[in-house]
Amino acid sequence: MTIDPNQNCIDIFHVIGLKYGACSSSLREKLFIDEHEVEDFSNSLSQLVQCEVLIVSTCDRIEFYFLEKNIEMITQIIFRKLALDDEQVLRKILAVSYKYSKHSALKHLFRVTAALDSHIIGEPQIFGQIRSSHRIGKETGTVRSKLNNFLDYAYFTAKRVRKETNIGQGPVTIAAAAIRVARDINGDLSHCKAAVFGNDEATIFLTEHFKAANLSDFIFINENRDNNYHSSTHLVGTSSSYGETEKTLILVDIAIISANNLNYIFTKEMITSVIKKRQYKPLFILDAGVPSAIDPALEDIDEVFLYNLDDLDRMALSGKNQRGSALTEAEKIIDEELEHFSKNIKRKNIEPLLREIINSMNQERLKILKQKPNLSSEAISQLLINRLLHIPITTIKELYVDEELDERTELLIRKLFISTAEWEGDTGEL
C-alpha cells in the first residue's frame, strides 16, 4: 500500500490573509467582514471550493486557513470572492496579502491563537474569536476533521503559553491599567458604582472600557440635571449636578473626572469629609483632566487612591515590557508543540500501512490454520515463518546481487528481522 499524500495534511496546509493596517481606509471598508457576515461568507464559499476552510475575521485582520494542494487556485477563488470580482480591488488585495504554507502556516496558526501576532501581544480576545470562527466553520461544513485537529492543538498550545508564561499579565493600555487598579481595590466591578465628571473624549473612552469590564451602574455629573445619559455616547445611567458632588461621591466606588475648571472640584477638605461619611471605605479617583481639577493634597488621604493618565501610562509601559520579556518563552513553547504535533501527524499517516501489515500477517496465519488444521503448533509456527519471510529474503538477495545493500539498509533489515538481543545486547523489547 502507498500512503495517500492527502493524509499528510501539513503538506497541504496553507493560510492566506491580510492585516488591515497594511490596507488603505477605502480598501479596509470593502474587505471588512463582521461576525454575522462570516457565516454567510462561509456558506457561499463552501459552494465554490471542496476543501476545508476556516475564516478568521477580526478588527485587525482577515485570514483563510485551508487544506488544498493547489494554493494558487484557492487563493484566486477566495480573494476574487472577497473583492466581489472587481479586478482592481483584487490586485490591491494581492499586493498587501501574505501567505504561509506547510509548517510555516501551522506555526502562524499557533502564534495567532496564542496572541503572539496580535497588535497587543497576549490579548485574550483573539482566542475567543478563533473559537467562534471554528464554530461557524463546523456549522457550515467548511471545517471538518483535519482542520478540527489543527485547531484543537492550537488551543492546547495557546493555553499552555498563557499558563506557563506572563504573556497575558500586566496591562498594556491606559484603560486596562485603570481597570486593573479598580479591580485591585474593589474586586468584582459588577458590584461597583462609578461617578463620571466631564464629557470629553478621554472620559468617554475610559467609561466605555469600564462598562465592558462589567461595571454598569453610572452617575453622570452634568451642569444641570436634565438627562439620564452621558451625552454623545450610548452609556446609560442616572444624572446629578456639580452642586451634588459630595453627596454623589459618598455613593460611588470610582470617580472618573476630566473637567476644565480653574478651581479644584475635588478639594482635600471635601474628600476628607466624604471619606468620613463613607465610613473610610476606599475611593478610586481617576484624574483624566489636563490641567487637573483635583487638589494634589488628596494623595495624603489613606483611603483615596488617586491616579492620573501619566500613572496609568507608566503601568501600561511596564506591562508591555513584561509581555515582551515573556515572548521568548512563548515562542519556545510554540516550537516545542509544533514538533510534537508534526510527529503525531507522521505517526497517524503511517498507521494505515502498519494495520495493513498486521492484517496481512494475520490473514496468512488464518490461511495456514484452515489449510493444515492437523499440524502441531510448532509446525504451524515454522510454516508461518517461512511464508512471511519468503518475500523479504528474496528481496534482500536481490539487493545484495544488485549492490544496493548499503550499510544503512543492512542496519534497517537487522532492526526489522533480527532480535535486538543478538546484535545490541538489550532485552529485545520493542
Description of the structure:
The longest helix has 63 residues, at 309-371. The strands form two sheets. A six-stranded parallel β-sheet has the order 7-6-5-8-9-10, with helices on both faces. It contains 15 helices and ten strands. The protein is 54% helix and 12% strand. Mean pLDDT is 85; it is low at 1-7. The protein has 430 residues and is an alpha/beta fold. The protein folds into three domains: 5-164, Beta Polymerase, domain 2, CATH 3.30.460; 174-317, Rossmann fold; 372-419, no CATH class. The chain is elongated and about 105 Å long.
Summed up, the helix count is 15
Largest sheet: 6 strands, parallel
Low-confidence stretches: 1-7
Q: Ends: how far apart?
A: 24 Å
Can you lay out the helices and strands and say which pair or pack?
Layout: E1 13-19, H1 25-31, H2 35-46, E2 53-57, E3 61-67, H3 71-82, H4 87-96, E4 98-101, H5 103-113, H6 125-140, H7 145-164, H8 174-186, E5 193-197, H9 201-212, E6 217-222, E7 238-241, H10 245-251, E8 254-257, H11 268-277, E9 283-287, E10 304-308, H12 309-371, H13 377-401, H14 407-417, H15 420-423
Parallel strand pairs: 5-6, 5-8, 6-7, 8-9, 9-10
Antiparallel strand pairs: 1-3, 1-4, 2-3
